[in-house]
Design goal:
The chain is mainly alpha-helical. Helix content is 40%, strand content 8%. The protein binds heme C (HEC). Heme C binds next to α6.
Length: 287
């Protein structure tokens, strides 16, 4: 009897700890108010996942036209955009420095450099080998322009936050959720249910049709066709950006998953051969 009671005690203690830590976990997830996290079925999830190239290309446009004003992408070089598995890879241009997209994008930015003759700091047009320039000369300047808060680098943001791609997507689409009274905002802070404490120093960066998506050219039955772009709603831009920033955070994902698949196929064939040779070796032996 005594034994039974202590067993029950232990059991209920375990249950109590589990439910308390469950509650703590929900709070630590940082979702405030009635907001329900959305979990889109990302094309890059799963064993055979790949990036949605058209979406990632649009995501680059949104980064360029909106986020780049405040956020750097300092671990990405223009030429990376034309690598195999990257959003702007073209088979005809295995060397990304020759890729016309890469060249155009690089030329669209000014980068800081040192004049090799005078030693002066100069600005020059970007080239494929340059890394994305930083929007501010240093952290102090970045804070001064953003009410004291530092816009983090976005190169590996999708890996840096728990929740990954879903976190980034929900952060961008959830600004218009009704704010509970319990969250009090001081000047310079904005309500966002996905942030810890429900507060963020970044004002909603996206609004419907903030960017204009262009039609894309696609080969269809051997003919070049113009395909209408999707409407640039907040959700669409957030999802496109997530594809782009998932790629910057994990540019080798497709190669890695490809190697994984080949390894599985190889092991399956190997197992079959081993099984057949086992049959053959033991064919005449009674067992
Ligand atoms: C006007 C400047 C500005 C623009 C434009 C801007 N941000 Fe921010 N962003 C900030 C600042 C400042 C912070 C820091 C917020 C804080 O610490 O509360 C931030 C924080 C973030 C964070 C980190 C949130 C976290 O978990 O700490 C992400 C992700 C982010 N921004 C993504 C974006 C994306 C994507 C875009 C483009 C659609 C964008 N931002 C546009 C200023 C900006």
């Amino acid at each position: 009897m005594a034994f039974k009671t202590s067993k029950n005690l232990i059991l209920s203690a375990i249950l109590a700890v589990a439910s308390v830590s469950g509650m703590a976990f929900a709070a630590g997830g940082g979702v405030y108010g009635d907001y329900k996290m959305k979990h889109p079925d990302w094309s890059f999830n799963g064993a055979f996942g790949t990036y949605d190239r058209a979406a990632a290309q649009r995501g680059y446009q949104v980064y360029r036209e909106v986020c780049a004003a405040c956020h750097s992408l300092k671990y990405v070089a223009f030429r990376h955009l034309g690598d195999e598995g990257a959003p702007f890879y073209l088979e005809d241009f295995p060397n990304p420095s020759d890729n016309p997209y890469v060249k155009n994008f690089a030329a669209d930015w000014q980068v800081a450099d040192i004049d090799s003759e005078t030693g002066d700091v100069i600005e020059r047009t970007g080239i494929a080998a340059d890394y994305f320039p930083q929007p501010f000369p240093n952290d102090a300047a970045a804070r001064a322009s953003n009410g004291g808060s530092l816009p983090p680098d976005l190169s590996s943001m999708v890996k840096a936050r728990s929740g990954g791609a879903d976190y980034l997507y929900n952060l961008l689409i959830s600004y218009d959720t009704p704010k509970p009274d319990s969250v009090e905002l001081t000047p310079g802070l904005h309500w966002n249910p996905v942030m810890d404490g429900g507060k963020i120093a970044m004002a909603a960066p996206l609004s419907d049709e903030l960017v204009t998506y262009e039609p894309t050219e696609t080969m269809y039955n051997g003919e070049l066709k113009l395909v209408d772009p999707p409407v640039a709603t907040v959700e669409q831009m957030a999802s496109d950006l997530t594809q782009f920033l998932a790629w910057t955070a994990d540019p080798k994902l497709e190669q890695r998953k490809g190697v994984g698949l080949m390894t599985i196929v190889y092991l399956l064939i190997l197992s079959l051969l081993l099984f057949l040779s086992y049959k053959r070796v033991w064919r005449n032996v009674k067992h």
